[in-house]
Amino acid sequence: MGKEGGCGQNKTMVKQEQELANRPDNTAFTQQRLPAWQPMLSAGIVIPGFVIIGLAFIGIGVALFITSKNIQVMEMDYTGFEPDSDCFKCSNPEEKNCVCQLDFNISSRFEGPVFFYYGLSNYFQNYRRYGVSKDDAQLSGDLDNFKSPSDTCSPYDTDGIKPIVPCGSIANSMFNDTFLLYREVNGTNELVPLDGKGIAWWTDYNVKYRNPNVTPLKEAFEGTVKPLFWPRPAYELDTSDPNNNGFINQDFLVWMRRAALPDFRKLYRRIAQGDYARGLPAGNYSLKIAYNYPVLSFQGRKKVVFSNVSWMGGRNDFLGIAYLVIGSMCVFMSIVMLIVYAKFKFPEED
Amino acid sequence: MNRHRVDSLGPDDEVMPYSDDETDDELEASSEEEPEVMPGVPKLYLILFSVSEMAWKVKANDRPYHQLPEFQKKVFLCIKKSRYSGNDIKTYKYNVLTFLPLNLYEQFKRVANLYFLALLILQIIPDISTLPWYTTLIPLVVVLGVTGIKDLVDDLARHRMDKEINNRKCDVLLDGGFQDLKWRDIQVGDVVRLKKNDFIPADILLLSSSNPNSLTYVETAELDGETNLKFRLGLRVTDEKLQEVHQLAEYNALIECEEPNNRLDKFVGTMLWEGERYPLSLDNMLLRGCKIRNTEACHGLVIFAGGDTKIMRNGGKTRFKRTKIDELMNYMVYTIFVLLILVAAGLAIGHTFWYEEIGADAWYLFDNKNQGASYRGFLSFWGYIIVLNTMVPISLYVSVEVIRLGQSKFINWDLQMYYPDNDTPAKARTTTLNEQLGQIEYIFSDKTGTLTQNIMEFKKCTIAGRSYVNLETLKTRPVDWSWNRQADRKFTFMDHSLVARIRSGKDKDANEFFKLLSLCHTVMVDIFPSGELVYQAASPDEGALVTAARNFGYVFLSRTQDTITIKEMEEEEKTYEMLALLDFNSDRKRMSIILKFPDGRIRLYCKGADTVIYERLSPNTRHKETTQTDLDVFANATLRTLCLCYKDITPAEFEAWSRAHKEAQVAMFDRDGALDRVYEQIESNLMLIGASAIEDKLQDGVPETIATLAKADIKIWVLTGDKKETAENIGYSCSLLTDDMQIHYGEDINRQAHRRHGPQTSRQGKKKPTEPFFPAPGKNALIITGGWLVSIDFVDMACECEAVICCRVTPKQKGNVVSLVKKYKKAVTLSIGDGANDVNMIKTADIGVGISGQEGMQAVMSSDYAFAQFRFLQRLLLVHGRWSYIRMCKFLRYFFFKNFAFTLVHFWYSFFNGFSAQVAYEDWFITLYNLAYSSLPVLLVGLLDQDVNDKLCLKFPKLYLPGQQGSLFNYKNFFISLFHGIFISLIIFFIPYGAFLQTMGQDGEAPSDYQSFAVVTASSLIFIVNLQISLDTSYWTFVNCFAVLGSIAIYFGIMFDIHSAGIHVIFPTPFTFTGAASNALRQPYLWLTIILTVGISLLPIICIQFLHKSIWPSVGDKVQQTLEERKKPPTFQRGQRSRRSAYAFSHSRGYADLISSGRSIRLRPSGRGGPQSSIREIPQREAENI
């Protein structure tokens, strides 16, 4: 303002603005006129949509179902609940260091790689108080927590005098049956090599669980006691491989990753070495089980599972069937909707 | 109550006693008979001497007096304080120190916040702490913080306002001289001096003023919204003796008066001075909030200060209003509480059994705690209360507040509710009631200033049988007034022929017509130094007529007690001697003036209602028929008409009449009657000149708005202080009444009630249900006067009518009508008004709307919404109200759903984890679910959603109906949300359950671990709730899109962060899900599980919605369908209608008394006995103004 010519005009404009000082802004947002798309559930979208989704689901379902059917699974209960079963003798808790043997036959080649799982039923690893009964700081190698474990570990935090490492119910109840698989080759039993490396999550092995930076590892555990139910202290979990000890022991890691449901399987070993990389050939096998873990007291079951996997993982028919059912329902409902729509959109009289 | 009244003929609306004392009791008192009021003795004086009311004592110029122990009241324990408040006002709630404790205290008064505090405490107890403390603390802190900040901002604004007002300056007499003090330092008993245009700082007794007779004009716009000036008079004794400062300093009267109260129309007290007692009334009072006008200076004594003043008492406590949805929501939260307790108890029992059966034997679960199964069940109960607490959504209340705030902002921002003429935007003063706007069933509207502009326009006239029309539709330029220097430039007139005739001077009748208008009135005039004339009229009608006369060349210049000076046609000024002024009253419906012309002729001019004038016309008057025809035409155009006539009187005749008049003036008994009879004598054999027609100008768009609102099934009642005829007239002109309606009048209620109850049935007897009052089909309308507004019968009858007009109602009655309808009809009500007389109903109704932008602020201050024009109401209700309601309902339905779906997964999981209160998700997910992952999209739906745009909302008012029926959110919807939530939670749990039961990962690792399961359920949930809100969103802006995608992205972002290696290394204990997300979401199998879960959750909903829409389409769906078919907007036609009495005159008596009596008004001998009778009957007039 101030220049001749435009001056008067400017003044009136300024004046007008002052007069309308309270005038709200005229923007799309303040006037609720934002550009918008107003989708309608119109028949033209919904009915073809349902058909397409239905067909897609059926397709996925078929693929899943076929894949699932092609996966070989062999599951064997070795709890020894029935008196005539092989492990019945071991089911008595008084029996120490009991070993039982499970013989089985594979009629056709079990395609590799084969995974060897142990499974527990009616076992509540997802029980809340059980689940929190551990000390994450201790398990990540914090030596302070070696000396004074967290309260959450109670009653497995100390044995009364010395702290327990690793503390807590989960660690204390670690699964301790061991298995040896033999194949009958020409009348003799040949040990099938089991690979226990890399059966735990990479993050658990490398990040979440760490041994204290003390060598030898044993010194770190000085002044602590092993969990009450453990036969050996943590630093001696794997006598064959010194690097597979402490908190990064693979079996320990697998056990510590608690299951979501009371029936669960945990990976025990891979069968992927030597001749068995392509799978288990047909033939007779025997499984030697060091039966240590009591489950009958709480009506639990133990089993071993051999399985191979596909792109979708292990065998599970549920998902395939569910997809097929939902897909068919979609197609069916699209027909129902079409009829209803036709009836109400174009009434007979009108 | 008042039964004898109902049974008798009923109150005549013109003589209804109008003191509020009566109406006060009318609805509250049960069956007590009215005290018999002595005829002619206003109640005021009866009360005046009842001692009990005189508890307030004020001593002039004596500050210590008011600190005497007898005037102390207990404040707190033994701390005592003077009962007289100081003049500082305090509307703020907090100061620096008290903000935190007080605000927290206020917030924890809310049940929801208290509940979460209790939860927090529960979570600290280790035995039952199933969730870490932060899951509750973080949301609670956020919620408290947001609310606290909002309160703080509000309070700061109040601080500023208070400071501004308290620091205004005023002259106070201290130590013998006037000192400039701040308002806050004024005390009761102080003598103050006020100058022209000052705001009055307290309730002040007027002592003297610079005008003669201590006449002081005040503008009461802030109090009652009326812009015409009122005058106040000091007592004669104070006026005479208290003009000088030293006199004022020695003034030491003791005032005894009523205790502070909120009655703006009543004040009683006495002044004890120099041994004599003088009565005081409202006439002597200057109330806080008014403005001094046209008076150089005046002196007064402060009677009530600060919080004791009438305006503050009035504005006092605003009733806390809640919406229907609020109540419903609270009940639903209670329902959820009950559900929560039941579910937790059920699960606790489950745990007890499980522990006995399995848990006790499971050696691996041994916890060395010697607790029995029942005790464990008990602990588990509390554990589940904590786990399932998210069923009661913590963020519900704060989200609702945010949405309402946003909707209020949209109202404030709406350009289509902005009135550029006085630069007034709409304002939502309450931010908690928006969705209620979508549920209104009854509107109660004030008339003056709300429906009408309170501007009277001289529209038409008929002079000697020839009619002149002033319509904008005539495509001519308005008359040029430049020949007339005194003309009011704002006045426009279209008919050039009239001006031409007058200027030519040939049409004697036309000249006489305007001469009459310039002489026969009670208008007062002010001449500004610039020479501009400003008329002060008792009613806008008179102002309009005199202004018209002024522009047509008959300029009213000045008046004295007995002369009137006018200027005729730019010639010399002429002074007429006023021999008598026969003032208007509501019985006479006319006023006359007897003038002695400069040439000695004596002539009577009279103007009045056609009905009364026609009876008194001389048999040889001309143009009777043509004028009558014109009057009919005017009346049909809903104009307010007046007939003008004159009569020449011989001096002898006048002498005789004058004697009779004087006698009547001093009559001791029934003076009014005597005067009326005398007036009657002279007002006969009149010669008709013509008639004027004035338009009570409606606000813009009023008829259209009323028609639209009526189509939305909103019943509109007009409550007005006006007379029946005026009100009916306005009813027609604003299309509230239409010709196809059958009009019923107040008297009918009597007959109808009789027919229903039989003559001797008691009113308290049981009501016969559902018998309609109006058996005849068709539309009905009711016009009723204040006195009838007492019974439930009235409500029943009125609610059967399409339109109701209540005339001559007092403010109190207005409020009572509203509360009657609220009480008996359980309906949502809205009141709209502009003046202090509407404050009562504005506060009573569920929603109060004030018309802002005019000078009066009282109505606006007590309103919930304020805007400048009545027509904005349709936009407020049909657009903003409807949207707000739909948005809020959508929001609530979804919000409940989303929390059920979220929380109940824990419930299903319980069956598989030994009822151990193990949660199905990660703790951090629980903490952030309501805050970050699912709230933004629904918040945006609550803010932005529109099913149809604003134009369609207004075009199809039927779209408003679902709100009135409350059909979008009720218990049915709540349970649908509940079952929807249960359904979704079932799917979210059991699909992954089935998938996890026996599976292995792609690489053979077991993915069936708890953490992967938690990731899958949480991811499914996030997809489902965000896609569900996408389905519910009917207005997709980029913001919505952004929010939905953003929420999902934020979920994954935060999850991958929390599950990352880095954060675990830094905080190993709180972040234990390391690697879970990356491990789980690597598996195609789990993705397929998530897709399936989402599909099963959403597809049935889409299917049901589609089928529902096809089979039972909603109003909105139909509108979309019929949109193409119906292009024509409904045309609004005004049919022929019968002749209505359109008599209109001032609302009240004129200033005649003041004019004609001058100083002598007080000296007139009293016919009524009371010492006050010399002062005019202000109470009645006041009431009529309302």
From TrEMBL, chain B:
Transmembrane segment boundaries: 108-125, 131-153, 331-355, 375-400, 891-912, 924-944, 974-998, 1010-1029, 1041-1065, 1085-1107
PANTHER family: PHOSPHOLIPID-TRANSPORTING ATPASE IC (PTHR24092:SF48), PROBABLE PHOSPHOLIPID-TRANSPORTING ATPASE (PTHR24092)
Source species: Cyclopterus lumpus
One Gene Ontology cellular component: plasma membrane
Pfam families listed in its UniProt record: Cation_ATPase, E1-E2_ATPase, PhoLip_ATPase_C, PhoLip_ATPase_N
Co-factor requirement: Mg(2+)
P-type ATPase A domain: residues covered: 166-227
Source taxon at top rank: Eukaryota
CDD domains: P-type_ATPase_APLT_Dnf-like
Top-tier EC class: translocase
Regions of compositional bias (Acidic residues) in chain numbering: 10-36
Binding site for ATP: D446, K447, T448, E542, F584, K607, R640, T720, G721, D722, R808, K814, N837, D838
Compartment list: Endomembrane system; Membrane
Protein name: Phospholipid-transporting ATPase
Residues in P-type ATPase C-terminal domain copies: 860-1114
Catalytic reaction list: ATP + H2O + phospholipidSide 1 = ADP + phosphate + phospholipidSide 2
This protein's UniProt keywords: ATP-binding, Magnesium, Membrane, Metal-binding, Nucleotide-binding, Translocase, Transmembrane, Transmembrane helix
Family per record: Belongs to the cation transport ATPase (P-type) (TC 3.A.3) family. Type IV subfamily.
Membrane topology, from the record: Multi-pass membrane protein
Domain P-type ATPase N-terminal, first and last residues per copy: 60-137
Predominant location: membrane
Enzyme Commission code: 7.6.2.1
Keyword Hydrolase: no
Binding site for Mg(2+): D446, T448, D834, D838
Active site: D446 (4-aspartylphosphate intermediate)
